[in-house]
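Trying the structure run again after the queue cleared.
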Amino acid sequence: MKTRNIKFIFIIVLIIIIIILSFFLKEKNETVETSSNVVSTKKIEWGIKRNDNHEQPDVGKENRKILEENNGICLGNKDKKVLYLTFDEGYEAGYTSKILEVLKENDVKAAFFITAHYLNTQEELVKQMIDEGHIVGNHTVNHKSMPELSEEEIKKEVMDLHTSIYEKFGYEMRYIRPPKGEFSEKSIKYTNTLGYKTVMWSFAYEDWNENKQPNEEKAKEKIINNFHNGEIILLHGNSKTNTNILDSIIKEAKGMGYEFKSLDEFEE
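Done. Tokens:
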């Protein structure tokens, strides 16, 4: 009986030790020691709480703090009626030529965040973006979640595309949009060392599903009602709805007193 009790106590103690070790290892995995501080590897999934009163939205106080402390941007000057138009381009769906035409007609410069697939299949469109004065940004080679990658993997995802663009066009990319809107303090610090500024957004909506495109009038209303000072607009270039309403969206914004500027002119 006494031996059985000792075994039982031993098992309980062992379980407690395992639980404590598991907790310690989990905490260790969420931070990386550096020479000066502790850098979190916790995944941040970017999100915003939209409003329709033309006030800047809530992008999450802590997430914004981490972003901006590491040279990233998501919202411009709250006192200036300036909009920054950006497109994510993972692949071409047949609409970018029209988008570029509309931008040219309205004298608006945008930023296009592209993947390696886009570059490899649409080299002429990428050249046109550059030739017409738009920014071409880095959306990585394979659109993988940055916090899930090692530094070596991040470097390959970012710099392989960077090198390809430079070799083809002599163009040096400077802005990056993390795939899936996911980053960590560690990943953003590392992309900084590669020479990149991270660009998130203060407006986006469900526009990326080609088989479930939003109603044009409702989409237009949603975009216009959410115009706000310093807004970084995220639209997807594979959206037929976005393409069809882009001209009227731009004209409506200008009619409301907003000015479109390039990310190169970003003001905090």
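The two ends are 73 Å apart (CA to CA). Worth checking whether this holds up in the mutant runs.
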